[in-house]
Amino acid sequence: MINNLILETPQGFSDFELLDSGASERLERWGGVIIRRPDPQAIWPRRCGSEVWGKASAVFDPAGKGERGAWKFLKSLPQPWTVEFSGAKFLLKPSPFKHTGLFAEQAANWAWMVEKLKSTRSTGSGQNSRPKILNLFAYTGGATVILAKAGCLVTHVDASKPAITWANENHKFNSLPQDSVRWMLDDAVKFVKREVRRGAKYDGILMDPPAFGHGPTGKVWKFNEHLPDLLSDCVSLLSSNARFLLVNGYATNSSALALGNLLEAAVVRRSGPVEAGELCLKDSSGRLVSTGIFARWRTS
Hints:
The protein has 7 helices and 17 strands. By secondary structure, the protein is of the alpha/beta class. The longest helix is centred in the C-terminal third of the chain and has 14 residues, at 223-236. It starts with a strand and ends with a strand.
């Protein structure tokens, strides 16, 4: 039973800093680059003045030319530039959808997954002794790189070819073994159903489904409508030695409590607790800014 919600913030991510927020924007430092991005939830006043906000090298304008807006560059940017977390390096660049290719708040979940995998054991040898992880809607591979670096065999699934290309570049940039990741350009729902039919098993599963989207064949994805069946299929893919199942949610009208209740029902026959909460960033004044929701199951 979920009675308390957790507020998670990334720890030890010195290459990222939320400098300030407010007036529907966030001011962030990624390594040596400062950017301004829209955040519709930041309806409060800013705490810093123009002397701080004026340091931004790039601003995303939602009214700019482009499907969802465009970047305005005030200073020259290295493209890409790099940041580091826990020994893993990532290539960043301004994307057409206001992102940089990494979600800093996810560092809290990366650390949580690595910790849960420390006690994973296998009776196999070689590759069979390494934890097998399924990363669905895997984007540019932040979690994939962290997990591969921790010694896992990761199946990275995403329907976007540019995203998988970017993730592959991150993987190569970290000089990870080529066979540490299996790259799948595929619809996550269809891939999971094929894995169920094959009898595949994973020691951990994570997913970051969009609120709304289209697969490579144009099939529509709706978070609240399609997530329950996907979760049910994913539970059947968990090995007897599985350590976790993690679900993230962004820009969805679902609550963390609703997501937690859904996951709790899906893993009802598995031992271990379910917890849910919000992923947050803490600005320089200590104020928390919510960026998304999560629910996660772990073994006891």
